[in-house]
Amino acid sequence: AATAWNTLTGEQPIVIAHRGASGLYPEHTIMAYKTAIEQGADFIEPDLVMTSDGVLIARHDLYLSATTDIADHPEFADRKVKRQTPLGEHEDWWADDFTFAEIQTLKARQQFDGRPMQYNDTLDIVTFDEIMDLVLAEAEKGNIVGLHVEAKWPSHYTSIGKGLADPILDAMKAKGLKEAGIPVYIQCFEPPFLAEIAEKSDLPLIQNMVGAPYAAMMGLSYDLETMPTDGVGADVSYVLDEDGQPTDFVDRAHKAGLLVHVYTVRDDRPDAPFTDSHAELKALFDAGVDGIWADFPATAVEVRGQV
Ligand code: G3P
Ligand code: CA
Predict the structure, then answer these.
(1) Fewer Cβ neighbours under 10 Å: the N or C end of the chain?
(2) Which percentage of the chain shows pLDDT scores above 90?
(3) pTM for this one?
(4) Which segments constitute the GP-PDE domain (predicted)?
């Protein structure tokens, strides 16, 4: 491996297991997280939402149809509700309408790339507490694995008189993550949430940025020079152009003192123009990124070892 990296700190970039080893096993399950740890991921990534009784659980979406077997539970058949979302109206079962006891009766089930995943319908929905217990147990064994925690749509919880910032911070404090030396990043797409965390903690913060084409469509722009966070979570399209060549994004971010974590690299569907994730990962490491979210962390660790 290279002795010098083009990262902000000069340190080796981190591999973040995106929702666990989510290319292999249903996302946000203990099996997906444990596999990521075995494969050498530096961080595992829980996306967090909250139940009606205030339990933080790891789910990518506020609704439950896409990643659980809830459609097969007749007792919940009349609990589907239409909601307005930033992406339009959507009818579904929403995690914050269900108690944790109810959610515990569900199993993880999803499609990956159009196919049902192995171990569907056998794995439980995982709490943030259980994920923290996993990295704490790992630390006891001498293996430090960090948490790259994403708060999902925190403005929704604020709009119903709740919030995500205090529950997340309180939960981490109660578990003693800091005392155990567990590295933590807090990431979010919504700036006000990160501002609240900044007021209430000294945790490093990552401002997630929607992909360049979507940002243009939604009229969003991000000013790296005035970004108040420690880094950005950037879609690959910011860092590599259509020909797979590096843009000036990493340089500009580093000049502004920002870390660049990039999402998401997948083995089975690398971003065009790449047909092989090894080449995509190498291009990103060469561009000087500070971290990569990977669905297949083993591949990212392997390529990092060859750079
Ligand atoms: O958190 C950044 C990365 O995970 C991309 O977002 O949650 O939609 O997969 P997500
Ligand atoms: Ca995420």
Answers:
(1) N
(2) 91
(3) 0.97
(4) 13-304
